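Annex B, item 7. Sequence and C-alpha cells for protein A, then protein B.
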Amino acid sequence: MSDYCEQIARGLARAGEEVHVWAPPIPAPPSPPLQADGVMVHRLSSQFHPGALKELGEGLDRCPGPRRLFVQYVAGAFGYRAMNLAFCVWLHQRRSEPLWLMFHEYAYPMGWRLKPAHNLLGVVTPAMSRILASRAQRIFVSTPAWVKRLPASVASSRPIEWLPIPSNIPARVDEERVRTARETLSGGRPGILIGHFGTYGRAITALMDEILPALLSRDAARRFVLMGRGSIEYASQLCARHPALADRVTATGGLPPDDLAAHIRACDVIVQPYDDGATSRRGSLMACLALGMPVVTNLGRSSEGIWLETLAVESAGDALPFAITMAAERLLRAPERWSDLGRRAAELYASRFSLERSLATLREVAAREEAGAATAVAPAP
C-alpha cells in the first residue's frame, strides 16, 4: 500500500495538486517535513496513537483551505494491531473538510477454522469500516467485491468508484536486460520458464505446493522461477519436500523494480493463483499484465466480471489446484497463443488498471464535485 500511496501522491502533484502525506514514523530520529517530487511528507511521532492524532489535526489546520482528506484504508496500517477504533472515531468527528475514503481492504474475515484473535479482528474491523464509510462523502474501492460488504444504507447513499491498484514496477524494460535475465535463469539451456510473482503468504503457497510440482512433472524441459520477497524461503521449503525438483526451481528474492520487471519478462508464462480469485487489488497480477505477459490465474469470490469479458488471462473457474494446473497446461502446450494473450493483457491494463487511469478518475471526480459546488452557490438568474 505504501507504493500505491507514493504513486498516487506523486501523480497528483505532477498534475498540479498540492499534496501533503501524513505517515507513521520510520526507525530514525524525528525530522522536519520532507518535500519530494512536489509532495510534502510529514512523519507522525507514533502510528496514529492519540498523540499522533493531535499532531495530525494541528498539521491539517495549518494547511490552507479548501482541503480534502483522502484516506488510504486498510485496518492494519493504523496501529493497535489493526483495531484502532480511536482513529476511526477521531476522523468521523473531524468535519472541517470533506473525506474521500479508499478501501484497499474492507475487513478481516471470520471462520471457525481461524484463531480467536483473528475472529476478534473479524468483529472489530467491519465496525471500523462502517464508522469511516458513514463519514465519507465519496468512497473508492480497489475491487467491486468490497461494495457488497458495505452496509446497504452507506452503499446506496454515497458515490462509490472502482479504483484498481496499478503496477508498482515499470511497464517497459530494456530487451537486453530481459535477455540477460533469461540467460541467468535458464543457465543457458533451452526450455520453458514458468514464473510466479508474489509475497508467498500461506493462502497462496498452499495452492503453489500442488501446482508447481504438477507442472514440472509433466515436462522435463520446464523450469519454475519464483520472484518476490519470501521466494527464497518458500523455494527452500518446497525443494526439501521435492528434492528431485531442486535444480529446476529458481528463486530471486526481492529485486529492484527494473530487475524484477526484466525477470518477469524473461519468463514464457506466468502462473498467479489466488485463494479469492483474480482481482484488481492484486498488485502482483497488475505487474504481470502491465508487462504484457501471458498469465494463468483463477476466478473466485472477489473476481470482477472483466476477466471473463476481456479474455485477457487464461483462467480456471475456481481456486482448486487441479483446475489451475489444467488451465496452465492448456496454455503451456499452445505457445502460438502466448503473444496474443500478452497483448490483450497489456491493453486491458493500460485502458482499465494503469496509474494514469486512476489519476484521471480522481481528477474527474474532483472536477464533478467542484462543478456541483459552483452550481450550488451560483446566484439565481
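Protein B:
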Amino acid sequence: MLPPVEKAQELYDKYYIVCQEFTEEIQCSIQAKLCAKIAIDEIIEAIDWHYYETPNNEIEYWQEVEHELNKSE
C-alpha cells in the first residue's frame, strides 16, 4: 500500500487526466481534487459499514490520505 501522501497524489492525478480533455487547467485541478475527496469519502463509508471485517488501520489510512489531499489546498 502506498504512503498516504503518494496515494492522495495518485488519486488526484487519475481524476486530473480524465477531466483534462474537457476543462481548463485551474478548473480541472479543482474538479480532480473534488472527485478524489468523493472517492475517499465513499471508501471510508464502505469500510465503516463493514467495520467488523476491516482492520482499524484501514479507516485511519484513508483519513490520512484525505488529510494529505486537503493539505494541498
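Comment on protein B: The helical segments are 4-20, 25-49, 56-71.
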